[in-house]
Design a protein that fits this description.
Blueprint lengths: L1 H11 L10 H16 L5 H21 L25 H8 L10 H13 L3 H5 L6 E2 L6 E4 L14 E4 L2 H9 L12 H15 L12 H12 L4 H8 L16 H8 L8
Helix pairs in contact: 1-3, 2-8, 5-7, 5-9
């Protein structure tokens, strides 16, 4: 239970009165936990227990003080089969994220990390933990290298990859050519997930209650399908293990070829 309390305090802020925890914030906290389940940093059962502990603590406080307010965590839970994120629609992102200034009060590094995830499909830790030497803007094909570095390890060998920069991700790295130093520390990705999921929920930037940051990886996968990128290349760019026989032959796709395919995705934002 102490772990659940510590994580909730880190998310909501220590000392916040429970009366200030709204249903929207409770949903944002659930989104934060789901992101870590999808990233395989936490088991669904563990996340569900943490939600249960927070709900019970608030219920106990209400009972002890004779309070009648609704518990913001009432009926908020997750199960094994409900943790997969739905993809954002391209239309929603174009209208709600890329028009006007919906992120004007969000930390600028966090905003550009979102843009990188949007057009690379990279994971939270992968993008937050990029070192300057992983970013290659002066190359013939601007790209990033997802690999172990001084900031983080990779969970599996097949997660290592080179991703060409196109669209929003190229714009983001031109502004932050050294990466995102405020997020490279061990809890950087966790803080990013917490802050951004809260922001999305409180500013109406989640397409549904089930959408969160990790939904962008699902959108990236759908966009690759839409533009008919070869399945083998899709798996490589996502960092997924490819079980097909062809994946074990030859040298794979060159950066130039990968860039040609990925440039097809740029039309989605026009």
């Amino acid at each position: 239970m102490q772990l659940a309390v510590n994580r909730a305090n880190n998310f909501f802020g220590k000392g916040i009165p429970y009366t200030q925890i709204t249903k929207q914030l409770a949903l944002a906290y659930r989104s934060h936990l789901v992101d870590w389940v999808e990233a395989e940093e936490m088991k669904a059962g563990t996340a569900n227990k943490q939600l249960t502990h927070v709900r019970k603590i608030i219920t106990f406080y209400q009972d002890q003080n004779g309070l009648k307010q609704d518990n913001p965590f009432h009926k908020i839970h997750l199960t094994e089969e409900k943790t997969a994120r739905p993809a954002y629609s391209i239309e929603f992102l174009k209208e709600k994220w890329l028009k006007g200034s919906p992120f004007s009060s969000l930390n600028d590094e966090s905003l550009h990390i979102l843009y990188v995830i949007m057009d690379t499909g990279g994971g939270l830790k992968e993008i937050c933990g990029l070192a300057p030497e992983d970013i290659h803007l002066d190359h013939e094909v601007p790209h990033i290298k997802i690999r172990p570095n001084k900031f983080r390890k990779l969970k599996t060998g097949h997660r290592g990859r080179e991703i060409p920069l196109v669209g929003q991700s190229l714009i983001a790295f031109k502004k932050y050519p050294q990466g995102f130093p405020s997020h490279t520390h061990p809890t950087g990705a966790d803080n990013f997930s917490a802050n951004v999921n809260k922001y999305l929920k409180l500013h109406g930037l989640s397409e549904t209650e089930a959408h969160g940051i990790y939904s962008l990886r699902h959108t990236f996968k759908d966009r690759m399908r839409k533009h008919r990128l070869p399945p083998e290349l899709q798996n490589y760019l996502m960092g997924h293990k490819d079980g097909s026989m062809g994946a074990y032959y030859g040298s794979g796709y060159s950066l130039n070829d990968s860039q040609d395919y990925m440039k097809l995705l740029e039309i989605d934002w026009k």
